Amino acid sequence: MYFPTSAARQLSSVPALPNVPLDSVLNFEPSPRKSLFCTLTKDALTIWRVRPSAPLAYLARSETSLIEHGNNLAVTWSPDGSRMVIQTTLSYLVLVTVDYIPDVSAYQPPDIGQGAQRNFLAGPGEGLPLQSLSLAFEGVIRAEGQVHSVSPRKHHILFSTNSPPAIQRIPWPSYDESDSGTDHSRRSLVGYDTWVLNDHELPWLVDSDVTVTKVLHSTAGVETWITSDGRAYFVRLQANAHVEEPTVDPDNEDESKDGDSGSLENQINGIGPSSADSSSSMHEQHWQGTCIHNIEVPRWVQKSRHVESDTSDNGPPVYIEPRRAVEVAVNARFSLIAIGTYSGSIEFTAFPALDGPAPIPQTIDVPNPYNRPRGKASTMEWSSDGCVLAVGWEHGWAIFSVGGRCLASAFGVDDTVDGERFQDAFMHGVKDLFWAPGNFELVVLAQSSPNKPDGQIFILPFAKSATTCQHSPDNTRYAFLQMDDRALVYRGADQPDMSVINPESDVWQHIKIPQAYLAANWPIRYSALSSDGRLVAIAGRRGLTHYSSTSGRWKLFSSVTQEQAFAVKGGLLWFHHVLIAAIEVSKSYQIRLYSRDLELNNQNILHREMISSPVIILSLVDNSLLVYTADNMLSHYLIIPTTNSIKLHLCGSITFNGIIAAPSAVRVLSWMIPSAQKQLGDPVDDLAVATVLMMVGGQLVLLRPRKSGNQEVKYDMQIFADRIEFCWIHLRGIGALENSLWGYDGQGIRVWLNALAIESASSPDEAPKNVKESVNIPLDFYPLSVLMDKGIIIGAEHESATRVNLPFVIFRHATSSHLFLHHVLRHYLESGQVREAVLFATHYQHLVFFGHALEILLHTVVESEATTNSEEAPNAMATTLPAVIEFLDHFDVALDVVVGCARKTEVTRWKQLFSIVGNPKSLFETCLNSGRLKTAGSYLLVLHNLEQLDENNKDAIQLLQSAIDAQDWQLCREILRFLHSIDDTGMALRHALTQTNLAEDLQGLSAS
Fold first, then answer.
1. What would the DSSP string read from start to end of 224-254?
2. What's the DSSP call for residue 277?
3. Which has the closest alpha carbon to 692: 671, 716, 674?
4. Which class for 318: exposed (0-12), middle (13-18), buried (19 or more C-beta within 10 A)?
5. Bridge partners of 187?
6. How many other C-beta atoms lie within 10 A of the C-beta of residue 203?
7. Distances (CA, A) of 867 to 221, 529, 655
8. CA pair distance 604, 581, nearest whole angstrom
9. What is the pTM of this model?
10. Most-buried pick from 94, 579, 705, 902 (CB within 10 A)?
11. pLDDT tens digit string along 514-534?
């Protein structure tokens, strides 16, 4: 799904300014919108633009400030991006204001001639001017106690301290409007609060004798604490029941409380509010929490204080729990929590339920083939789409999918490199990281090196599946990858059969996106592929563009004003040559239809459909357009071509209120129509009888319709599986694959054959948590597409390469494939459904590798039954293997399949195999009589090992004579080599030559 590609770009972390010291970067932090990021050294702060990667502002602290308040330690942004808070080593909070200067560029282009300017084209995201900004010190706040973590909010600064162990909150300083223009010293700090960590104020803590080491607040509004004992908590600030509700927002209490905490000037002078006043029990709000990561501490440790903050002065603690949490990343879209531990392991945990047992964590497998040290987890972040997790350790990094599949990892380099020239320091350890806008790049801060303090920042490019942006059926029909500046379409489905399974075949088409569009509209947000794979549509920040592989041309809006007037929100779809786009324009929402054959402009829009709510997802099933909107409404439109144009006809809508709790979490939408409705019904009525398929977060669910007494349609939800990353639905599948569901859970593909026939529970209380799949296909690569007509799953896996003469690592993705035929066939045969298996296999018997697939099937059954030690093994052998043999007898390749399987299986299992297949000598004679001489030659080895060849090797001589008559001299040579191998004396070989007169013929040929 996400694969590193090309090579990482390295940034110089030292601005090109005079007298700037060469210091290593302590950490960096992206802005709330991730268009900017800041880097922090011990005495300076630099703000960078993400694209193009360039510094915009630099602010250095004075020597006096460093002595009085301490060196820089960490930095965080305010939610609106207008302020920054620097945490110092002496527990001061340095406030910095960020002023954006509109219409002023941070860099002025050089004066060059018009002819030379044409050679400098803006790259992706570089078309917009570099907006200038300035940094200024606003003041310094002295915190009471040693500060551990700072988390700025909209109206307050929240931070945790050690002495006393507490959570403290202080509002942002605000200017009094009556102050003069030059005197800014009088500011109010009203609304100061302190919550001491004890059993009285925070009774839900498992152990109250702790400090909060990290306070994390995600963009989804989920707040997480990590405590010094290694536990993690979900927390929420709630109003007290006995306190009157405030008249203003709880996080904006500046106007509702008296200013009893002193001014910022007093804070600067070291006069803070007393803990007796600030930590009183009369809080208007209280913290409510739930433990999401618990650890069992040994009893002998429980008797002593275990506070992490003491370790800096008194050495390491006596006991360090390996599972103690050091990093937490929350994935609200999939309701998943990733926890990085002190030992370096990664655990995934589901969100805790309001009532019920705590979820069982899943420990993720981290590939480390050379068993290199990885250290503790140093940083983690989910991509904005929630599909992948980037993890940095002290000695490496990795990318994991939401199901736990490792997509890429590195703990050092595998090959020998020149240590002096090698520059990719992130391969040996990562200190911090974040995903850039669009998730096409991972910005990484490498561990600092004493010899190379500069150049710690790297930008690693990625290719990702287009289904991460838009999970439509057409995007899953072909393997479709999206890069920062191009689209990659897998063309193996159009190639001969052997090209599909050949890993060396380069069958990816690279479609470069026009530079003129990307320069101003980077990053790409939506990508859509037509059902035949020939048309591609792309939508970025604003507007859209589309491409035809037949003509090789892109079409852009002729008017930049029209392009910049709207943004695609909800997706793109192709209906033949018509592009369907859900857009937002001037705070209104539309569905527009564009023709590939016409120029892109507002005059050529085929149809506009006004809708009242933002579109979450679009889906196309035949000529039915399904539109799911943010108001939890599913609308069904029929696409009706007219004489001169095309239009949408609204057939009906239905609400999912009470069924889908979070509309924004819906990632996949489709439906399945009963056969009777397809053949006899009116398409207008499809909505009332269709079974709706949705993927809500990671849950794959079916919504089955039922009509109540007043003919109102209601839906019963049936959950098929959790933690599903991607799914494929085949409404027009081959044979038994029609209406089948294919879901990937990070380990393998789970297939539900004929999902419409799966019965739902009679009552909601009896509904199982998951529906057992029909087939489970384990994979060792990441799947991207299922080629139904070829019986193959196409996917990719990450590869990296280093060279001694190169100072960087090269990343690429390699194409992989896996046959799924034998998995489906085995499901039928284990159920005794031989007829269904034969019908299914007939759709694929024309393939070149059909015999190979059947050979895998037979080999798998033989091996699995031979290694089964249970008491049911004899019964299984008596049913499954005979069913497989009966199935093979329906195809001409059966004899080749049996002998091919036998030659790949241990000889000790041949007796059992041929006791069911039949006497190998009879099979040999059948091959000989039917003219399958090469197959008969393969059976000679079986006859020899089973000691069924007579002393005179009559069967071998008979086959040799037939090969001579057919003038198959290659087979003759193999038979003679076989006779020589079974008799070292050469008697068998001489006897065969004599019996067939081959020696005399050879002498005659040599004499002539």
1. EEEETTS-EEEEEEEE-TTSPPPSS-TT--T
2. H
3. 671
4. exposed
5. 175
6. 11
7. 52, 46, 53
8. 14
9. 0.89
10. 902
11. 999 999 999 999 999 999 999
